[in-house]
């Protein structure tokens, strides 16, 4: 780090698995302090690496100017000052936010016909952790995050669409009207991939927005 205290050269902060999965803070934060030792130096450069143990890594290279007498924290992550030099490409897969919100709105709400987050967990083969999910503010959001961590490619959205299709077939047995609506909505999901999932219909009476937004 040019123009800064060089000891220690390498500083690391670690979040445990429980901190990541049990925290209500979205997202988790960490902070590093640097001491300026040369008044003549007005530039800051450093490298920030975010990684999982034996997992994927993202590196951010930071360059910024520090004005003389500046007392405010250096804005490390301003878009103009920070560039991503290494990323995991398709491995950085995330379920689109609009899709995540619609799924959470549908399955977090208790449903007399059994279409709830427990059925979602079952169809995504994550039903071994029902007790843990039940304690969360948005069980569906946690289920989707765990599914996301296990399926790191956009092509895996097909398996999510298939699970939703199975749930739709179970739900559609309740009435002919539900069957017609389910057939229409789920055909959109199958044909459209990511875009089709965005057309997921929230059943009548279940269109409230979830508290979870991340």
From TrEMBL:
It comes from the Eukaryota. Keywords: Receptor. Pfam families: Death, UPA. GO terms for cellular component: membrane. Residues 89-180 form the Death domain. Coiled coil: none annotated. GO terms for biological process: axon guidance. InterPro entries: DEATH-like_dom_sf, Death_dom, UNC5A-D, UPA. The keyword Flavoprotein does not apply. GO terms for molecular function: netrin receptor activity. Gene3D superfamilies: Death Domain, Fas. This is Netrin receptor unc5d. It comes from Crenichthys baileyi.
């Amino acid at each position: 780090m040019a123009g800064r205290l060089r000891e220690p050269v390498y500083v690391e902060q670690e979040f445990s698995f429980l901190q990541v999965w049990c925290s209500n803070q979205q997202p988790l934060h960490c902070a590093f302090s640097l001491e300026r030792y040369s008044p003549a130096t007005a530039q800051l450069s450093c490298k920030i690496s975010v990684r999982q143990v034996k997992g994927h890594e993202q590196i951010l290279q930071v360059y910024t100017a520090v004005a003389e007498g500046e007392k405010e924290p250096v804005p490390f992550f301003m878009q103009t000052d920070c560039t991503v030099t290494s990323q995991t490409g398709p491995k950085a897969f995330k379920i689109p936010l609009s899709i995540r919100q619609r799924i959470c709105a549908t399955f977090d709400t208790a449903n007399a016909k059994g279409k709830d987050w427990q059925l979602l967990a079952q169809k995504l083969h994550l039903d071994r952790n029902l007790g843990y999910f039940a304690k969360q503010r948005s069980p569906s959001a946690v289920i989707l995050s765990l599914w996301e961590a296990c399926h790191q490619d956009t092509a895996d959205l097909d398996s999510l669409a298939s699970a939703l299709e199975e749930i739709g077939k179970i739900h559609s047995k309740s009435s002919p009207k539900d069957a017609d609506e389910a057939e229409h909505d789920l055909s959109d999901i199958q044909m459209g991939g990511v875009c089709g999932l965005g057309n997921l219909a929230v059943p009548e009476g279940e269109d409230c927005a979830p508290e979870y937004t991340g």
